Amino acid sequence: ELDKGLGGFSGFLVSMLVAFLVSTRKIHTTMSGYQVLRSVLQFLATTDLTVNGISLCLSSDPSLPALADFHQAFPVVFLDSSGFLNLCADVTASTYHQVQHEARLSMALLDSRADDGFQLLLMTPKPMIRAFDHVLHIHPLSRLQAACHRLKLWPELQDLGGDYVSAALGSLTTLLEQGLGSRLHLLAHSRPPVSEWDLSQDPPKHRDSGTLTLGLLLRPEGLTSVLELGPEANQPEASDFRQFWGSRSELRRFQDGAIREAVVWEAGSMAQKRLIPHQVVTHLLALHANIPETCVHYVGGLLDTLIQSPKETSSTGEEALAAAVRCYDDLSRLLWGLEGLPLTVSAVQGAHPVLRYTEVFPPTPVRPAYSFYEQLRERASLLPRPDKPCPAYVEPMTVVCHLEGSGQWPQDAEAIRRVRAAFQLRLAELLTQQHGLQCRATATHTDVLKDGFVFRVRVAYQREPQILREMRSPEGMISLRDTPASLHLERETRHLPLLTSALHGLQQQHPAFSGVARLAKRWVRAQLLGAGFTDESLDLVVAALFLHPEPFTPPSSPQVGFLRFLFLVSTFDWKNNPLIVNLNNELTVEEQGEIRSGFLATRTQLPVMVIVTPQDRKNSVWTQDGPTPQILQQLVVLAAEALPVLEKQLMDPQGPGDIRTVFRPPLDLYDVLIRLSPRHIPRHRQAVDSPAASFCRGLLSEPGPTSLMPVLGYD
After folding, report:
1. What is the DSSP-derived secondary structure letter of residue 294?
2. Residues 539 and 584 in one domain
3. What residues contact 478, with CB distance under 8 A and at least 6 apart?
4. Which residues form the Nrap protein domain (predicted)?
5. In this predicted structure, what is the pLDDT of residue 638?
6. Least-confidence region, from 196-205, 216-225, 652-661
7. Concatenated DSSP letters for 158-170?
8. Mean pLDDT, range 208-219, rounded to an integer
9. What are the φ/ψ torsions at residue 435 (nearest 5 degrees)?
10. pLDDT confidence of residue 702
11. For residue 364, is pLDDT > 90?
12. For the whole model, what pTM was predicted?
């Protein structure tokens, strides 16, 4: 959408650019259309017309104005063949930088030799709301008149015949680029086109030309820093820094003894830190451009409320997830260091959405480490009351504890199960004896209560899936064949820990992954389709947005990631293509080609939704049990309906209205509705529309016995 609106980079400018490249022999008549496209993109990506202008004029007449003269008057310079007309007179510097940014992305996509490069480059729409992490609308436009006066832009107003929107635009973008600094990768603006008018009437007023919308493409590295560090107090630049930041700038002493000017933004949780650009933008526009906060509608964190836990209103749960992961790391160290186990622990691996940061509602610790009496009270509070028969919802986090292989293991499946059960009991004894942890052992797992979080530790033996595959014929011959039991065990003890580890790494690389995955799962479950999709399959679809973001850049905010999730789900050809999620970049282009041809050859034996990873190249283990064709089709239809509704809401300068609309499921397509009694629903408060009246699940007023393990997974 680079050619849209006043001052866009139009098709005419591109035609003139091709003519220029022909005249300078960069394009030859023998080139194919693809080669011409590459040459134009290469030129745009590497040539900054805001610094070094170009000209179609071949005359060497000394009376012609020089390019340097044009650079003083215009941000972007491209002269016509007369040498007197700047074809890019209306193009702003930020529009041209956006063109350059897109050209670089396009060149990278062409160089990657992707199979679907044509589709991604020339047929995938990139509206502003889907391309930029945060968007802000300035409305009404008449406020920009005051901005021109505050910024003393009288010469620009005269040049532009009183068009105060165009006059203020360059200064506003420069101001915000300077203020956002290392947080910002690209700042773009979109402007409505000038409408036609009848010759007998007055032309339309500038204030009636709609809304000025700015898009911010953010850098994840600098985004969450709460500190803008200025110069030392005795430096001459200190006064400029104070003037730029106004009352927000203050002198601070740092650990190295330096006394510097600095600006500190208020942000406690990760969600608030992601929205620091909002504080920066509103502060600078009010201070330097006389545009009050009421005229700036900032769209960046509106969907965050949907992944906040019912008790937390300022945080979106990243902190709770990080606390659970830290607790898991502590438990891993304890398991590694256990003394008294007959076999040593060879690996401890997490296998739960919390441990890859994608659990929609992170667990809250059931017992914070307070004083002894408060511990008694907290534990007692986990019991349900007689009149409120519903315990608190506590989900155990699965941890797989691999034991080393040795000749001591039996070679019979039933005997292995019994040995594992003995290990589960021994594990509980040792954790209680050596570390004082509350444990409860069963034949298949040991539940461990640590720092308020409950972990479900499963002992695994690496050869067990192999032994379950062994089939003995009447003649005593042994053959290997996959059985439901062997596939399930392999998925739980091998595939799931590997996937959890890979996605945990992706979260460290892209901090927005957690928020996008949780919003996506929240939406799928809110549509009553959660049972059709495993957690892992949805996590992988979201991972694809970060690992293969073309033609975009990886999302830096949950909002834009969720919009792209809806677009991917609704437009991907699930019937004729596998979704390849190249975790850790392990698959080469050739291997991906082989996977696609193998997919087409065995399509009839594969599930309707096929997701391929480097560890799972043929079977799509996470979609074997679902979704059914009907459920997948329903998801595709709902995503296609939800996307335009949500984008229209977010691009509305008057405010988005009710942002939860697309999360409410359509109930008219069902024949039967079953309504559940809220008294028996432990997660009643996690509804999309939080109930007006509710009660805390599992509260008992008087202290009881101290050795209680909470009720686990009751829903």
Report:
1. G
2. yes
3. 470, 471, 472
4. 7-124, 130-289, 304-508, 510-665
5. 94
6. 652-661
7. HHTTT-HHHHHHH
8. 85
9. -130, 5
10. 42
11. no
12. 0.91
Token couple for 119: 């589709």
* Within a domain: 126: no
∠ CA 278-282-288, nearest 5°, is 145
- The CATH number for 75's domain is 1.10.1410.10
Q: Residue 260 has which token pair? A: 């510097």
Cβ atoms of 642 and 501 within 8 Å: the answer is no
**Confidence label for 543 from pLDDT (cuts 50, 70 and 90):** very high
Mean pLDDT value across the chain: 85
Closest by CA position to 381, among listed 85, 703, 72, 628: 703
Nearest residue to 609 via CA among 506, 686, 681, 537: 537
Q: Is residue 233 part of a domain?
A: no
How many structural domains are present in the chain?
Answer: 4
Q: Exposed/middle/buried for 689, CB within 10 Å: 0-12, 13-18, 19+?
A: exposed
Is there a single domain that holds both residue 23 and residue 80?
yes
Torsional class of 361: left (φ above 0), alpha (ψ -120 to 50), beta (otherwise): beta
Looking at the domain assignment, is residue 347 inside a domain?
yes
Same domain, 656 and 680: no
Contact between 88 and 565 under an 8 Å Cβ cutoff? The reply is no
Shared domain for 107 and 140, answered yes or no, is no
Answer whether 259's CB lies under 8 Å from 233's CB: yes
Q: Where are the alpha helices (DSSP H) in 160-225?
A: 164-180, 220-223
Task: Say if 549 falls within a structural domain.
Answer: yes
Written as one string, the DSSP assignment of 109-129 is: HHHTT-TTHHHHHHSS---HH
Angstrom distance (rounded) from CA 120 to CA 247 = 46
Domain residue limits at 317: 310-510+667-714
The answer, yes or no, to whether residue 371 has pLDDT greater than 50, is no
Assign 704 a pLDDT band (cuts: 50, 70, 90): very low
CB 5 within 8 Å of CB 193: yes
CATH code where residue 428 lies = 3.30.460.10
SS3 120: helix
Last residue of a domain, one of 243, 273, 299: 299
Torsions phi, psi for 472 (to 5 deg): -105, 125
Contact 504, 456 (CB under 8 A): no
* Model confidence pLDDT, tens digit, residues 232-254: 878 888 888 888 888 888 888 88
Q: Nearest CA to 588 among 108, 107, 112, 105?
A: 112
> Is residue 27 scored above 90 in pLDDT?
no
Digit-coded pLDDT (tens) for 264-301? 888 888 888 888 999 999 999 988 888 888 888 888 88
Residues 143 and 275 in one domain: yes
- Both 339 and 414 in one domain: the answer is yes
Q: Cβ distance 154 to 672 under 8 Å?
A: no
- CB of 298 within 8 A of CB of 650? no
**Tens-place pLDDT, residues 426-436:** 899 998 888 88
Neighbours of 527 (CB within 10 A): 19
pLDDT at position 260? 83
Q: Residues 388, 456: one domain?
A: yes
CB 628 within 8 A of CB 636: no
Do residues 56 and 79 touch, judged by C-beta distance below 8 A? yes
Let me know whether 351 and 473 are in one domain: yes
pLDDT at residue 558 in the model: 92
Residue with tokens 């608030």: 272
Give residue 220's identity as a one-letter amino acid code: P
Give CA–CA dist 189/206, Å, rounded.
17
CATH number at residue 170: 3.30.70
